Each structure stands twice: as C-alpha cells, then as structure tokens.
C-alpha cells in the first residue's frame, strides 16, 4: 500500500481548501474525511480543531498533523513545493505569513458576519471596508513581491510553491464574494499567477470532482 492522505475537515472549503488544492496539484492519493458528530470527535483531535491531515503510510502507521498552516508547509516539503534553497524557503515563509493576515481579515470582514448573522448594515459595512481599504493595500504588497520575482507567475523562484497555491485559492475566494474584485487591471501579476495554476490539469480535475465542497454550508451565505 502506498502513502495516502485524509483531509479531516468540515464539508466546506474553508481552511482546508488550500490543502486539498496542494494535494491535488501534487497528484497525491487523498480523500476527504468529514466529521459525523464533531462534539464527540473534537477531543480526539490533537488541538481540538480542524483541519487535521492524516497520512497513512505503507507500513500501516498513521501520522496525524493538526493546524492548517503546519499542514500546508508539511505537504509542501513532502512534494517539493517549498523552494529549492534556504533563501527561497525563508522568502516563501514570510510571504505566506502575509496571507495568514489576509485570512484573518477575510474571516473578520466577510465570514464571521455571515456565520453570526450580524445585522445587515453592520455586515455590509465590514464588507465595504474589506474591499475598499484592506484588499487594495494587500494587493499592492503582493504585486510588489511578484514583480520583484520577474512577474513570472510565481512568488519565489521559477516553479509553483505552496504560497502560489494559497494565493490562487484566495484570488478565487475573494472574487466569489465580489465578482471581478481582482482582475488583470488592478492585480495583473496576481491574475497571471491565478491563470497559470487554473490551467493545470490536476487542479481542474479536482475543481470538477465531487471531492470539492462548497464555500458555505447549505443555507449559509449571501
């Protein structure tokens, strides 16, 4: 039996989707594992949180890895998406942390108001702040990083990295919330990266597969 993986997370995209995309891009043998009774399963996870990656080895042993960012870096190292030397790996790590900041803003300004059913005027104001203030500043920063790397469709070096994958996901995620919020005019280098990954056959196969869950649970969302 060869090594395989289970992505243990809720049946939504959320924090697990970049992991799924990275595994798909790697051509890994993987599947989803959805909780059936999360309150009773929670204590059995390493941190009491999801996602968790379960790696099933050929010898029958399991490696259980918690925390979404730890999982991303682990999968990147395992499949060669983490840079070719220490300088590249350090640069990728720093840029990835900026995406961690973006994730916090997406959760604060977009996801949490929907999840908590905040009053519409409050939710609309938070969304407006994200798209008019937070996002333009973030885009300017990432366009600078991509330009410094030669605008070749990658953040660091000349091949796909785990940072490129999370950038790909959040480009699509942001445009899901507001169509054309990111485009060739206001984020040309990021758009180039997005299109390059979107054309990958393994990525497209995953996007069209039943493995891919929705952005929000049924009945939730705008």
From TrEMBL:
Residues 85-217 form the GST C-terminal domain. InterPro entries: Glutathione-S-Trfase_C-like, Glutathione-S-Trfase_C_sf, Glutathione_S-Trfase, Glutathione_S-Trfase_N, GST_C, GST_superfamily, Thioredoxin-like_sf. GO terms for biological process: glutathione metabolic process. Its EC number is 2.5.1.18. Residues 3-83 form the GST N-terminal domain. PROSITE patterns: GST_CTER, GST_NTER. Keywords: Mitochondrion, Transferase. CDD domains: GST_N_Sigma_like. Pfam families: GST_C_3, GST_N. This is glutathione transferase.
